[in-house]
Design brief:
Elements (H helix, E strand, L loop, with lengths): L18 E4 L2 E5 L12 H14 L14 H14 L3 E5 L2 H12 L5 E5 L4 H8 L4 E5 L4 H9 L7 E6 L11 H11 L2 E5 L14 H4 L8 E5 L9 E5 L1 H10 L1 H4 L6 H16 L1 H20 L11 E5 L3 H13 L2 E2 L1 E3 L10 E5 L6 H17 L4
Parallel strand pairs: 2-11, 4-5, 4-6, 6-7, 7-8
Antiparallel strand pairs: 1-2, 3-9, 8-9, 10-13, 12-13
Helix pairs in contact: 1-10, 2-10, 3-4, 5-6, 11-13
């Protein structure tokens, strides 16, 4: 703050699209998780407006009591079918899915095993559990096997992993995790927050991308990214969902998601399924950006997704890059500990389906200028 490079809580003065208004100026938005580009879509907006007119502004209670609408149930059924599970359960936020579901799936004497770069909501979920918590080095399958070998063979062993890692943009090695699942009689939960709407058939996620949906026991996702709303869900077989309905504290003791948010997510889900060109556009512009960042000399790591990390490896310079890029008209996000290791600080460049190659060119030109000014290229 004292140095004038504080990068948080920057105010946006309108809809979030590929360009936003901030302080009356046009800024290219490359700091959003709206991969499908639907947050400003008129159909999504109108669905939310219509739901508010029909159901009111809120439900004034939890799903457990007076807060269940037929709209919630419809969304759950369609989400379950979309991700290939028997049933689903909608929560008010994606964070409360992980923080509420994970403590319910295992008990004393059981194990929760996580990648050391899993999302904060997974970390909080395992902290709330009475089970033993283990973690393995990021995407290191040898280390995952070592952790599984520590476990009591007769206990429940739940491996919880991000499908797409939200800062680095790389994918979980799901095929190998599934192999180890069978070898050690474990179970798998995959967080599809950044995979839904991006990977797999019609955007069904990383589990579908690898053809391993049936091997994954529990799938969670959020509405705040590709589904252009706010909320989250968990999908699994009927018995697990029924258990969670009656035991997940963040579900039972939270007010249900608003009618507008629920309807907006449902409409976005329909659009994703009916407009395959949206996913095609996302991958065209993603591959274009990946190629051009590499050619410009940026270090972008092992990303395989629309999340492109531009490594800075210096905390102060990470803040300076963010501020200087913003002054040039490019909105990106800084990533510092605890969201990454101290030596891995970066700025996160994220793409949407409605970004153009020209916008990417403009951003890369400006970011190249900034990185060179700070001796990072």
């Amino acid at each position: 703050m004292a140095a004038g490079i504080y990068p948080y809580f920057r105010e946006i003065e309108g809809k979030q699209g590929t360009e936003v208004l901030m302080g009356g100026h046009r800024v290219l938005m490359f700091g959003s998780n709206a991969y499908t580009g639907l947050t400003g879509d008129d159909r999504v907006i109108e669905a939310g407006v219509a739901a508010m007119r029909k159901y009111g502004s809120g439900c004034a209670g939890s799903r457990f009591l007076n807060g269940t609408l037929d709209l919630h149930v419809q969304l759950e059924k369609e989400l379950a079918a979309f991700v290939g599970k028997e049933n689903a359960l909608c929560f008010a936020t994606g964070f409360t899915v992980n923080s509420g579901v994970i403590p319910c799936l295992t008990g004393r004497g059981d194990y929760i095993i996580c990648d050391d770069r899993d999302h904060a909501s997974i970390v909080d979920g395992k902290r709330l559990s009475f089970s033993q918590n283990l973690k393995y080095k990021h995407n290191d399958m040898e280390d995952l096997e070592k952790q599984l070998q520590k476990c009591n063979p007769d206990a429940i062993k739940l491996i919880v992993v991000d499908g797409v890692f939200s800062m680095e943009g790389d994918l979980a090695n799901l095929p190998e995790i599934v192999r180890l699942k069978h070898k050690y009689n474990a179970s798998i939960m995959v967080d599809e927050a950044h995979g839904l709407g991006v990977f797999g058939r019609q955007g069904r996620g990383v589990c579908d991308h690898f053809g391993l949906t049936d091997e994954v026991d529990v799938i969670m996702g959020t509405f705040s990214k590709s589904l252009a709303s706010i909320g989250g869900f968990v999908a699994a077989d009927e018995s697990i969902i029924n258990w969670l309905k009656h035991n997940a504290r963040t579900y039972i003791f939270s007010a249900s998601s608003t009618p507008a948010a629920t309807a907006a997510a449902l409409e976005a889900l329909h659009i994703i399924q009916n407009e395959p060109e949206r996913l095609e556009n996302l991958w065209k512009v993603t591959n274009y950006a990946l190629k051009n960042f590499r050619e410009a000399g940026f270090e972008i790591g092992a990303t395989e997704s629309p999340i492109i990390p531009l490594y800075v490896r210096d905390t102060e310079k990470t803040f300076r890059v963010t501020k200087m890029a913003f002054d040039e008209g490019v909105f990106i996000n800084p990533v510092i500990p605890p969201a990454c290791a101290p030596q891995d600080t970066l700025v996160r460049f994220a793409l949407m389906a409605n970004h153009t190659n020209e916008q990417v060119d403009e951003a890369i030109e400006k970011l190249t200028k900034v990185f060179k000014q700070l001796d990072l290229l």
